[in-house]
Amino acid sequence: MKKKFLSFYFYAISAESLIYNDKLSKIESSYINTMPHSEFAKDRIRNYMGLFEVKKCIKSY
């Protein structure tokens, strides 16, 4: 989720991994921050989302 304000973007990233080893468990986390407007701000937020998901996958091992 991202919201454009006058001088910055406010964004929140969340990811969840489900693990099944005889019972179902999950690893979840979220991150909230701001980013100033720039030419590639939306692309950076999308990259952060991808990296956040990869980090949760690695943590689930």
Key structural traits:
61 residues; alpha+beta; elongated
Compute the CA-based radius of gyration: 14 Å
Number of helices, counting only DSSP H or I runs of 4 residues or more: 1
Quote the distance from N terminus to C terminus: 27 Å
The total count of strands amounts to 3
- Tell me about the largest β-sheet: 3 strands, antiparallel
Structural class: alpha+beta
Uncertain regions spanning at least 5 consecutive residues: none
- What is the 3D shape? elongated
Order of helices and strands: EEEH
Query: Mean of the pLDDT scores?
Result: 87
Range of strand content: over 45%
Overall helicity: 25-40%
Query: Major sheet: order of its strands?
Result: 1-2-3
Oligomer description: single chain
List the helices and strands and how they pair.
Blueprint (H helix, E strand, L loop, with lengths): L1 E3 L3 E13 L3 E13 L4 H19 L2
Antiparallel strand pairs: 1-2, 2-3
Explain the overall architecture.
By secondary structure, the protein is α+β, with helices and mostly antiparallel strands. It has one helix and three strands. The chain has one helix at 41-59; strands at residues 2-4, 8-20, 24-36. 2% of the residues are buried. The mean pLDDT is 87.
